[in-house]
Amino acid sequence: MLPESFLNSLKGLPGFDKESFVRVHDLGEQVTSLRMNPMKFVDSTTHKFLNQTSSIPWCKNGYYLPARPFFVTDPLWHAGAYYVQEASSMFVQYILEQIVPETQGKIALDLCAAPGGKSTLLASHFKDGLVVANETIKSRNAILVENITKWGNDQVVVTQNDPSHFKSLPQFFDVMLIDAPCSGSGLFRKEPDAINEWSEESVQHCSTRQARILEESMDALKVGGYLIYSTCSYSFEEDEEMMDRIAAMPGMQNINLHPPVEWNIITCESPVHHAQGFRFYPDKIQGEGFFVTVFQKQSTLVGGYYTNDFKWNPITKQEHALLSTHLNLSNQFIYISHQKTIIAMPAFFEAPIKALLKNLYVKKLGLDIGEIKGKDLIPAHALAMSSWEQLPYGRIEVDEATALQYLRRADLILTGVNGWQAVSYQQIILGWAKLLPNRTNNYYPTEWRILKY
Predict the structure, then answer these.
(1) For residues 427-449, b (16+ Cβ closer than 10 Å) or e, as one string?
(2) Fewer C-beta within 10 Å: the chain N or C terminus?
(3) What CATH number does domain 393-453 carry, 2.60.120.400, 3.10.450.720, 3.40.630.30, 3.10.129.10?
């Protein structure tokens, strides 16, 4: 049951209808939605989960499912063919299409990124740009790295830094997405246990934290760049009040958007600066609670200098020659040796990536191709997940039962040519295996394996 103090705190807010709001939470119906990976084609007409979907109007790759399946039993979920994401939060896709339709050369930051839903959305939109996905907490950062790797884009850098660290990169980003840590009231229907954790004190604590995050990171946004600020909270202190805080910052101008009326998204306004934002209510749309607003930085008091004198190790001519026997090494990428593996990074972003390495704690960058041992290439799992047209070695297509055995990292026998092989299911690669005369070595990452289902 929703606390009366919580309901009272929402009285008078735009779009809040207590009766219908309470009713939809009492019903407890679960909305399941996902976003398809445009780089990994799935035949939805034959897929066991995806053959009865309906489209999410504000996200071209987003779909509703009629019921929530047990995703861990679908090999394509593990392969990054889609991301299970709350439908309301996919509205970020609509925003990006309005404010940044041309993405070539643009750099975007997801400041509070784990587990990676919005980061993978950014990666798909900025396919010819650069995306930085940051998460402060180490355990959550590991989940972020996993999801980014499975999604397969090679133009994403994952960092693990406090928001204040981004002051070292003034005027660096064209887009900053701050999906701020919040009191979480927008997810009460989806996660009823969270109701017991809500309090007016927690709302105030989150509001203070959100203000700090904004103030400490805003220098990193370029003049002309856009801030997308969002929460999964209904609270005025975390939404409208925060819009006024942003609007009061030097050079920040609110951006008006006009989503179709039939989407039933509620437009709201901050009391002081009359900034526009959007509220999503589960009794009005097919999704959970969400808030989002957009600002543009039109001037700044901060200079634009940052250091990028990071020294890395380009691969040797011998390593390049060996890799060329396995891969088409495009000159659009730079190839370096980094922590015993070879990384491919978009050459266009060499200077920004060096700046990231110089000023931040980087957990993942570019595409991990693998390790050279002698005359052999030991392929990285990230290479199997990537969208590179030419992959080394052969490929073995397996059925669902074998795919799940592989994903459990269990013993299995595959039939084919001895040596490295990519294991694929429904033509989407799951990872690597090595066939030997009397056994098959399973190279699916141990830390990602299916433990039980």
Answers:
(1) ebbbbbbbbeeeebebbbeeeee
(2) N
(3) 3.10.450.720
Task: Report the topology of domain 4-297.
Answer: Rossmann fold (3.40.50)
Return d(Cα 218, Cα 169) in angstroms, integer: 10
Asked if the domains 4-297 and 393-453 are classified in one and the same CATH topology, the answer is no
Q: Provide φ and ψ at 124, rounded to 5°.
A: -70, -35
What pLDDT shows up at residue 264?
98
Q: Which residues, 6+ apart, have CB-to-CB distance to 9 below 8 Å?
A: 200, 203, 235, 236
Q: Which residue has the higher pLDDT, 41 or 335?
A: 335
Rounded distance between C-alpha atoms, residue 335 and residue 367, angstroms:
10
Checking 417-421 for CB contacts under 8 A at 24+ apart, the result is 419/393, 419/394, 420/379, 420/392, 420/393, 420/394, 421/393, 421/394, 421/395, 421/396
Per-domain boundaries in the chain: 4-297, 393-453
- Global pTM reads 0.97
> What does DSSP say about strands 428-436 and 419-425: parallel, antiparallel, or unpaired?
antiparallel
Distance in angstroms (rounded) separating the CA atoms of residues 229 and 287: 19
